[in-house]
Amino acid sequence: MQQKKQNFVQGAFILLIANLIVKVIGALFQIPLKNLIGSDGFPGFGLFSVSYRIYIAMLVVSTVGLPAALSKMVAEATTLGREREVRRIVKVAACIFVPLGALCSLVLFFGANALAGVMHNPDVAPALAAIAPSVLMVSILSVFRGYHQGRSNMVPTAISQVIESLGKLCIGLGLAFFAMSRGMGAPAVAAMTVLGVTVGEIVAAVYMVGQGALLRAKHAVTAPTLNDSMRSSGALCKTLLSLSIPITISSAVMSVTDLIDVALIGLRLQTAIGMTSDQANALYGVYTGMAVNFFNLPQTLVTALAVSALPALAGANISQNFTKARKTIGTTFRMTMLITLPAGAGFLVLSEPILRLVYHSDTRIAGPLMQMLGLAVPCVALVAITNAMLQAFGRADLPLISMFAGALVKLFGDYFLIGNPNIQLMGAPISTVLCYALISVINLFQLRRLTQGLPPFGKTVLRPLAATLGMSAATVICFQAVTRVLHAAPGTGGDKLATLAALVVAVVSYAVLLLALRAVEREDVMMLPGGEKLAKLLRL
After folding, report:
1. What angle (nearest 5°) sits at the alpha carbon of residue 5, between those of residues 2 and 8?
2. Where is average pLDDT lowest: 195-199, 215-219, 447-451?
3. Closest C-alpha to 483, from 362, 352, 371
4. Contact of 370 with 351, CB cutoff 8 Å
5. Are 34 and 359 in contact (CB under 8 A)?
6. Residues 123, 285: contact at Cβ < 8 Å?
């Protein structure tokens, strides 16, 4: 018995809510953690950040291409009524990627000291060993997530993401506090903290395995399928690898770039600028733990759109429903711009005040870094959705070109800009902007060539941009006015009140301007849960 499908906007909405919850939990974890193990020059948070980035790079190699490739294959087989083939696809995927995840975990665990030496950061080795089992757990999660996403059911993925975050919050923060209270050194503190990530992944994997057992029980009483034909395991394996390998490589390019980014930032700050290892780690912790954390918030929301749009586009393409495909592309682009343009503008005009809401130190360092990253927010979002669209149309090879080009820009930018005494760490966000701007331009060109057109520029970009500019003006005026009335100095209660007031004004003014400029379409609202009532309320 098959569950009723969600449309792709409803699926994205479910993932979006889950991602918001995950981000709130992440803030509850990261902010006190930064204040606990990353303040006053203590390098514990920097070591935690380095180990987590290395773990993400290993994770990409073992699993990142699987959910996307698997969801595409499951969506196509489901559209054609091939239920037996769907089950075989999942079995083939598990036989390939779970052992690969286990291998990556072993490599990370036993090679922790060697990898830390390559990174010129031997203190990070204990944290790498502590996080190694997570790679295997996420391999298991990826198989089940890809299956459910291909069925256009985003609920299990959403729940498992929340479980992961809760494990990190409850266990990781508790262990960090325990380690600090016992006076442990920075390497041990980072290792204890990162155990929370491992525990969260284990619990989430157990949940997903349980969901898989329930599905097998339901399939045992499923009625005969519409189409009993299916390809052989060998053919499915070939197709799965032909899809997942290009996706993995294109994603791995950026993750490996992030990995080298870790090494380059520390190396260039030490060799070209003259900082000590502890100073470089502490500064890296400020960059990733403060500026990059906020930068990643809007990207997680857009990722929900990309994940949900991929199977919808794949199903429309395999059934040659080109009208549905065009509508899905248009809606995805509009929603992406509606989310990321105001987010990027918020970073540009309120970066340091926003940081002062949650951090009590290093905001003057992180503020300009976060401000620069604001320019990259729409570009990163465009990369995510265009990659998903190209993959849905069976051209997972095309993002390879743009991702390699972007990686080169990022690496050379980091090396030369961070090594410049006048730029230093600011070189990292600058190279990020240049990197993702180039990737998005190349991807848009490829998508336009493949689909013979892109959504109308006016409705997709100009109207949200006009609303964003109006919002930005209202936000700055409000913040400055409240600050002057309260005579608020930076970091005081009045400063925080001014920031909160400006954020409220930003949300309200942006919503009003979107409706006034007709930047929101009725068909987009109708796809949301309760869309008909909402459309009537908004008079669309």
Report:
1. 155
2. 215-219
3. 352
4. yes
5. yes
6. no
pLDDT at 61 over 60: no
Q: What is the pLDDT of residues 443-473, one digit of tens each?
A: 999 999 888 778 888 888 999 999 999 999 9
CA 36, CA 340: separation in Å to the nearest integer? 31
Q: d(Cα 374, Cα 47) in Å, to the nearest integer? A: 25
Angle in degrees, 0-180, between the axes of helices 377-392 and 65-79, rounded to the nearest 10: 40
CA gap 380, 341 in Å, rounded: 11
Instruction: Give the three-class secondary structure for 361.
Output: coil
How many other CB atoms sit within 10 Å of the CB of residue 395?
15
Instruction: Give pTM, 2 decimals.
Output: 0.76
- d(CA 268, CA 198) in angstroms, rounded, equals 31
The pLDDT value recorded for residue 64 is 62
Q: What are phi and psi of 273, to 5 degrees?
A: -100, -25
Please provide the average confidence, as pLDDT, over all residues in the chain.
83
The DSSP element (H or E) to which 39 belongs, if any, is: none
At CB < 8 A and 24+ separation, what contacts does 118-122 make? 118/263, 119/50, 119/54, 119/262, 119/263, 119/266, 120/263, 120/266, 120/267, 120/270, 120/277, 121/47, 121/50, 121/266, 121/277, 121/281
User: Residue 71, exposed/middle/buried by CB under 10 A (0-12, 13-18, 19+)?
Assistant: buried
Q: What residue spans of 38-154 are helical by DSSP H?
A: 44-59, 65-79, 83-110, 112-118, 125-131, 133-150
- What is the rounded CA–CA span in Å between residue 375 and residue 344? 6
Q: Are 282 and 41 in contact (CB under 8 A)?
A: yes
